[in-house]
Amino acid sequence: MKLIFLDIDGVLVTSNSLIPSDKYFGHTFDPNCVRKLIEILTATKAKIVISSSWREGRTLTQLQSIFRANGLEDCVIGVTPSFNDETIRGIEIQTYLDAFDDLEGFVIIDDEEEMGELEPFLVETDFRTGITESVKDDVINRLMMNKQ
Fold first, then answer.
1. Which residues are CB-neighbours of 96 under 8 A, at least 6 positions away?
2. How high is the pLDDT of residue 27?
3. What pLDDT sits at residue 42?
4. Do β-strands 105-110 and 2-6 pair in parallel, antiparallel, or remain unpaired?
5. What local confidence, expressed as pLDDT, does residue 146 receive?
6. What is the distance in angstroms between the CA of the first residue and the CA of the last residue of the chain?
7. At what angle do helices 133-145 and 31-44 cross, to 10 degrees?
8. Full-model pTM
9. CB 13 within 8 A of CB 113
10. What Pfam families does the entry give (predicted)?
């Protein structure tokens, strides 16, 4: 299975989707980023593991519901462990990978660089734009060529 370790803020929630009057503030994804993520998932058949801070204080079921409400059906299969504020996200992702059996490839989509030894697998986004066409192309290329 191919995995995408996904941050949310700066990837799917961008400055364009933060509308103060929106009753779903904090839960509305940028529709352009959603379209590009759907294209990635369709092309690669990858599944999503949430590595975002959104996993803290929310269950997997709640996160899946948020994704469904934003047009992303049946794509989230898990969340990385959360150790503490001092632990870099790359260590949490590596812990998830260590327990995963059927890995064909993976990529990390995040707007932060702190991935430690997993930095070569990072496709970095910008908070203002999230998943752009070039990010989408990079992720698809990595997942289609990447064999772990």
1. 5, 49, 78, 80, 81
2. 60
3. 97
4. parallel
5. 53
6. 11
7. 20
8. 0.91
9. no
10. HAD_SAK_2 (PF18143)
DSSP, collapsed to helix, strand or coil, labels residue 14 as coil
Q: Which amino acid is residue 71, in one-letter code?
A: G
Look at domain 2-145 and name its CATH class: alpha beta
CA dist 55 and 34 (Å) reads 19
1: number of Cβ within 10 Å? 13
CA atoms of 37 and 8, how far apart (whole Å): 12
Place of tokens 């009057």: 21
For every residue of 65-98, DSSP letters joined together read: HHHHHTT--S-EEEE-----TTS-HHHHHHHHHH
Instruction: Look at residue 57 in the predicted model and tell me its pLDDT.
Output: 87
What is the rounded distance in angstroms from the CA atom of residue 22 to the CA atom of residue 81? 30
User: What residue spans define the domains of the chain?
Assistant: 2-145
Token digits of residue 17: 């989707």
pLDDT value, residue 6: 98
Which pLDDT score is estimated for 20? 53
Q: What is the block-wise mean pLDDT of the chain (148 residues), using blocks of 10 residues?
A: 96 79 60 97 98 92 92 95 84 95 95 92 96 98 77
